[in-house]
Design brief:
With 115 residues, the chain is α/β, with parallel strands linked by helices. It has one domain. Helix content is 34%, strand content 21%. The protein has helices at residues 2-17, 21-32, 56-66; strands at 48-53, 70-71, 74-81, 92-95, 110-113. It is globular. The protein starts with a helix and ends with a strand.
């Protein structure tokens, strides 16, 4: 019995090691959209946009995870941005450590940051 538990622990550890930090962050950012009650203007848009500030690897992984998925019935678009004002059409944005963030849009936006 102990051998089975040990083997399952080793297999779980091997699986955990094969997932990159960007994959975990991207999955979190994507899943975060399910926990927000989006106000009425969001469903009127054609796409649900997630802006990623200065993190090309995360943006690429988020695009992979979001491919073919939707938020409230709208396809997801991921934008890699370099200035906060480029997120003006985004409903959600991610900023990594060292990035100064502030709201620059008049439409409702969720912001996910990592410090």
């Amino acid at each position: 019995m102990a051998g089975i538990l040990l083997m399952s622990g080793v297999a779980g550890l091997a699986c955990a090691q094969s997932v990159s930090e960007d994959s975990v962050k991207a999955a979190f950012v994507y899943r975060f959209t399910d926990y927000v009650d989006w106000p009425a203007p969001v469903p009127q848009r054609q796409q649900f946009t997630i802006a990623v500030m200065d993190d090309p690897q995360l943006a690429q992984e988020l695009e992979r995870i979001c491919a073919g998925r939707q938020v409230k019935g709208h396809p997801i678009r991921v934008n890699l941005i370099h200035r906060q004002k480029e997120a003006s059409d985004a409903q959600s944005s991610f900023s990594g450590p060292g990035t100064r963030t502030r709201t620059v849009t008049s439409s409702p936006t969720s912001a996910v940051t990592r410090y």
